[in-house]
Amino acid sequence: MSVQHKVKIGLVGLGNIGRTHIRYLSAMDHVELVGVCDTVKERADQYAVECGTDAYYSHTDLFDRSGLEAVIIAVPHYDHTTISVDAFERGLHVMCEKPLAVHVNDAKKSLAAYEKANREHPNLMFGIMFQERTLPFYKKLKDIVDSGELGRLTRVTWINTAWFRSQAYYDSGDWRATWAGEGGGILTNQCPHNLDTYQWLFGLPARISGHAHIGKYHNIEVEDEVTAYFEHENGMIGHFIVTTAESPGTNRMEIIGENGKLVYENGKIILYKNRISMLQHLRESKSGFDNVESWYTEIPVRKSEPNGHKVVTEAFVQAILRGGGELIAHGTEGIKGLTIGNGIMLSSFKKAMVDVPFDADEYERILKELIRSSKYKKAGRNETDWDMSGSFSTS
After folding, report:
1. Which residues constitute the domain of residue 90?
2. Which of 156, 215, 282, 324 sits in a 20 to 30 Å window from 223, CA-based?
3. CB 73 within 8 A of CB 316
């Protein structure tokens, strides 16, 4: 009987998200966890014992001594770039937590390192942990939008304020909610999934008008409430409204096309199907007021399909084993949602609409100046062990 090959994986970062990965990695048949790494020695030692593996205190030691083939990167955001570049230089497969980077210029460094490594290792896998692409309702929205059934899209409005975070959350960990440690607030931490889902469904906007409020409700130096307006080349407009200070929160997406309207909210997708194109109707109707006749349908969704972090990592592992294959989200796509997020903040800082692509150097300069001039002092310094399951979308 042949011995089943297992992908040798190392995990860098044992904070709350890193521990989320540990919980499912131990149950995966095709994975051998050959090392865990954290700059906090006691934490690395503890989880190494629990997982029956070796502890490392720097990612380069893990890379050079553990015999790993692939790495999962689950560290504070700025370090995503350094660690991914070092991994690619060694020909390692990479699964990076969101966001790919804090700003577009750093994302480009990771992409350049991957492209260089991929020329030497054509089967090199580069994934990013956009597990919300596996959620059944978002998958169904993708299916309907891609089918073209709605015809020409005219408007998307996404209100996602179901990201409530307390002051205690922000006080945990000295890196959270700071320009130097996290690089931003809700757009950098909670909303990379939403920004990715938006571009996954509709593509990048051509122009962005962003309005970000810094520490409006929390004692933080980064944004906790954002409203953005997008214009797309095809004429579609978008609205994006998010905050970490609203309870009860809302997650409602409206997608308007000439052939009808999709509404996702409260665990349902409703299609209002137009009998004829609304654009045709507005041109040809002899009445000044009559709406298009439309039919109400609740779209069936397979809610029981597997989803979440494990599904993303399983696709990554299987692609490595096969020497290629589809990923839930390829790492190179990480720059797209990041572009929207950076564009929103740049527009807000400049108090002006920005074109996409924008001047990434300008945004990086603004970010560096915010770090340099920061006088913000955190109330708390110790990382708190949170149960992160409550922070992940499940619908």
Report:
1. 7-130+307-329
2. 156
3. no
User: Is the Cβ–Cβ distance between 259 and 150 less than 8 Å?
Assistant: yes
Among 4, 2, 7, 28, residue whose Cα is nearest residue 325: 7
Rounded distance between C-alpha atoms, residue 174 and residue 164, angstroms: 20
CATH number of the domain that 216 lies in?
3.30.360.10
pLDDT tens profile 314-347:
999 999 999 999 999 999 999 999 999 999 999 9
Model confidence, pTM: 0.94
Q: Is there a domain that residue 144 lies in?
A: yes
pLDDT classification of 1: cutoffs 50, 70, 90 = very low
Q: Compute the distance between CA of residue 73 and CA of residue 76 in angstroms, rounded to an integer.
A: 9
Q: Which helix (H) or strand (E) holds 299?
A: none
2 pLDDT tier (thresholds 50, 70, 90): very low
- Judge whether 1 lies within some domain: no
Q: Residue 210 in 3-state DSSP?
A: strand
Distance CA 281, CA 311 (A): 44
Q: What per-residue confidence (pLDDT) applies to 102?
A: 98
First and final C-alpha spacing in the chain: 42
59/393: higher pLDDT: 59
Average of per-residue pLDDT values in the chain: 95
The CATH number of the domain where 25 resides is what? Answer: 3.40.50.720
For residue 290, give both structure tokens.
């009559």
Are 36 and 155 found together in one domain? no
CA 302 to chain centre: 23
What are the φ/ψ torsions at residue 306 (nearest 5 degrees)?
Answer: -60, 145
Give the C-alpha separation, 294 to 272, whole Å. Answer: 6
Q: Which of 162, 189, 187 is nearest to 173 (CA)?
A: 189
Distance CA 332, CA 323 (A): 18
Provide the token pair at 256. 């308007």
Instruction: Note the pLDDT tens digit of each residue in 146-174.
Output: 999 999 999 999 999 999 999 999 998 78
The confidence band for 274, taking pLDDT boundaries of 50, 70 and 90, is very high
- Residue 175 has what pLDDT? 84
Number of domains, the chain:
2
Half-sphere exposure (Cβ direction) of 105: Cα atoms closer than 13 Å:
11
